[in-house]
Amino acid sequence: MAVGNYEKCKRxxxxxxxxxxxxxxxxRVYPCISISRETGAGAQPVCKELIKILDSKxxxxxxxxxxxxxxxxxKILEDHHLPKQISKYLIEDKYNxxxxxxxxxxxxxxSQWTLLHQTTETxxxxxxxxKVVIVGRGGNIITSKLxxxxxxxxxxxxxxxxxxxxxxxxxxxxxxxxxxxxxDVARRKFLKSNFSRDSENPELYHIVLNTNLLTYEExxxxxxxxxxxxxxxxxx
Length: 236
Hints:
Layout: H1 2-15, H2 21-25, E1 32-37, H3 43-57, E2 66-68, H4 71-80, H5 97-105, H6 112-129, E3 132-135, H7 139-142, E4 149-155, H8 158-169, H9 173-195, E5 207-210, H10 216-230
Parallel strand pairs: 1-3, 1-4, 2-3, 4-5
Helix pairs in contact: 3-10, 4-6, 8-9
């Protein structure tokens, strides 16, 4: 499935490249949806169901909806011709001011600020194409000024998130709990350090959904319905 998602992301990017039929004929800009999430709140199943719904409600002769999560890292590397070794520095839990400066001086990899700038450029490029769901990477902050952007936050009780991580990553309970706490702290630091924002601030989002009180399918349906109502002219 990971390979399939990556290939779909590649096709999405290729179809919007200058000179392609989609790029030449595209007149309407469809929405961009950013997904912020607590670790284990079910962003992946929600995204998969969400793009199914939106595809079924969009004109068939248009490009399909696509979501970017880990594949976004590969897209950034491709955009900026960066070596594969530095992909680890683009992950949200790797931010460190001191090591960034030291490694830049030693010429080991681009500075964190350079990577952040390149990440921002890539997220904005994808968002302006439309019909895209961007998970994490400060997508809601980066696209906050775009008129086609819609921001979602997914949350859930810790016990539900632990079970999700145990099932998806085949972890025991203790490891899953450690993983969740580490990821949540890292994501908050990433947003705070780079954008001076608190990911838990509800004012940053159009809607905040609890995937314990709603199933993943119901959560996707709520997001899809809200997006289609907000951008009603773009859906037949």
